[in-house]
Amino acid sequence: MSEVDFAAMRAAMVASQLRTSDVNDSAVIAAMLRIPREDYVPAERRETAYVDRPIPLGNGRAINPPLATGRLLTVAEIAPGDKVLLLNDATGYSSALLDAMGAVVTAVDEADRPATLPAAVTWVQGRAEQGHAEGAPYDVVLIDGAVEEIPDALKAQLVDGGRIVAGLDERGVTRLVAGRKIGDAVGFVNLADLEMVRAAGFRVRPREFTF
C-alpha cells in the first residue's frame, strides 16, 4: 500500500472519526493528519492503522483507537511549550503527536524506546504509575489508556493549576476524565464514556467475589 493511500486514510479518519466526535482542537487535527499512524503499529497491521478500534501489539497490550487518542489530546488542552508527562505509550504514537503540537514530552513505559520516536522526546523505561519525579513538575499528565485509579504519585508531579487526563475504568465502563490541581488537591469531572485500552504499568485491583 502506498503512502498516498495512507494519506487518504488519515484524511478519512479525521473527517469521519474525529471531527464528528468532539475532536475540535485545530492543533490535534493537524498533528493527527501529519503523523503517520501506520509507522507506530506492528508491520502486519499497517493496513488497519486507521480503523477505529484498538490494535493489538502483543504481550497483552494494544494501542488506543484513533478517537480515544484524539479525545484525550483535545481535553488536555495542550499549548506549545507545555511540559507533558505521558504514560502508557508503548509505540510512541502519542508522543509523536504531542511533539508535533509543540509539547515538551517525557514518556514513561516499560517498553524499549521506539525506533520511530522523535529525538526531542525523553523516553523513560519504567513503571508508568510511578511517573518521573525527576522531571517534575509537569503542566499536563496524560494517561494514554484506562486505569482503575489515578495514583497520588502522578498528581504530586503536576504544577499548581496543572491538568491530568485519563480513562477511568469504573466497574467495566471506561470514562474519559479530566482533573485540575488546585493546591494539594485534584478535582475530576467525568466527560464521556469512551472505548480505551487498559493502560499497562498500573496496579489492578483484585477481583471481588460474592457467593
From TrEMBL:
It comes from the Bacteria. The lineage of its organism: Bacteria, Pseudomonadati, Pseudomonadota, Alphaproteobacteria, Sphingomonadales. GO terms for molecular function: protein-L-isoaspartate (D-aspartate) O-methyltransferase activity. GO terms for cellular component: cytoplasm. Belongs to the methyltransferase superfamily. L-isoaspartyl/D-aspartyl protein methyltransferase family. GO terms for biological process: methylation. Keywords: Methyltransferase, Transferase. InterPro entries: PCMT, SAM-dependent_MTases_sf. This is Protein-L-isoaspartate O-methyltransferase.
